[in-house]
Design brief:
Uracil-DNA Glycosylase, subunit E; about 290 residues; 8 strands; alpha/beta
Length: about 290
């Protein structure tokens, strides 16, 4: 029989005079192990305990949490997150399928047929000039009286005909009055459209009046300045393919006599776009300045 005594019990027996004659066992060395068995074990001790107990346990050991597992993926192993894998090409087949499904349902419309090269373009002709009476706003049938002011030519295409007919013709009269040309000879030169194949010099089967050249008009009227109203009149007198905005605000020269001419908007456009009247007035002032008025 062995007696297990701690240090304090041994000291008490020594003070009481009781010698320790019985043999000591090795159990007291294990006492500290029993005392420290209650505190929580350190992580290293827990790992050693698992290594010692895992082979002898019949029940399976609880796996470690995912937080304790390493995040590194071994080489050759499959990716644990499908979202991190290469994205599937689902959108591409969807677009291809949509395009293939739409193509048969909505066939491409054929392009607009190009005009033949020999298709006649719209042509114009200058008709006989008509003297305007700006004071009475009417046409003057008598020859122009003698005047110290230079004569003017006003070339334009009016849907209503010759001023002062219609709103566009009345607007032309007002424009010329604002320029104070009531005391100057002002000739209206109608610009007429020609039908395809029609002869500009004689007309259709001789029924249309003959056209006049700008040089012939200057010789007959003695004009010293010309107002060209609208793009059709500018194309007919100046030619070329310049945009209308570049034809404005400059003095051109037309005909063999190099008659000065200023291009501005036609009255039909001014009726549709009243804001263009300010730009038109600037062009009229340029013509007045060049004519010395």
């Amino acid at each position: 029989m062995s007696l297990n005594l701690d240090t304090r019990q041994r000291a008490m027996l020594q003070e009481m005079g009781h010698p320790l004659w019985w043999p000591e066992s090795a159990a007291p060395a294990a006492a500290p192990v029993a005392e420290v068995a209650h505190p929580p074990a350190a992580p290293a001790q827990v790992s050693e305990k698992k290594q010692l107990l895992a082979p002898n346990q019949s029940a399976p050991v609880a796996p470690e949490s995912k937080a304790d597992q390493p995040l590194a993926i071994p080489s050759g192993a499959e990716a644990p997150f499908p979202a991190l894998a290469e994205p599937a090409p689902a959108p591409r087949p969807a677009r291809t399928a949509a395009a293939s499904s739409v193509a048969p349902a909505a066939p491409i419309a054929p392009a607009a047929q190009a005009m033949p090269e020999d298709f006649p373009r719209v042509r114009f002709a200058l008709r006989a000039p008509v003297l305007l009476d700006l004071r009475e706003a009417k046409l003057q049938t008598e020859p122009a009286p003698a005047s110290s002011q230079p004569a003017w030519l006003v070339v334009a295409e009016l849907p209503e005909g010759t001023p002062p007919q219609g709103k566009a013709g009345q607007l032309v009269i007002n424009m010329l009055r604002a320029m104070r040309l009531t005391d100057a000879p002002v000739y209206w030169v109608p610009l007429a459209r020609l039908a395809p194949g029609q002869d500009a010099s004689q007309g259709d089967e001789g029924q249309e009046p003959p056209s006049h050249s700008i040089d012939a008009l200057v010789q007959d009227t003695g004009a010293a300045m010309a107002l060209v109203l609208g793009l059709p009149a500018a194309r007919h007198l100046l030619g070329g393919e310049q945009p209308f905005s570049r034809l404005r605000q400059q003095v051109h020269q037309v005909g063999a006599g190099r008659l000065p001419a200023v291009v501005t908007y036609d009255p039909s456009h001014l009726l549709r776009v009243p804001k263009a009247k300010g730009e038109t007035w600037a062009d009229l002032c340029l013509a007045l300045a060049h004519a010395g008025r």
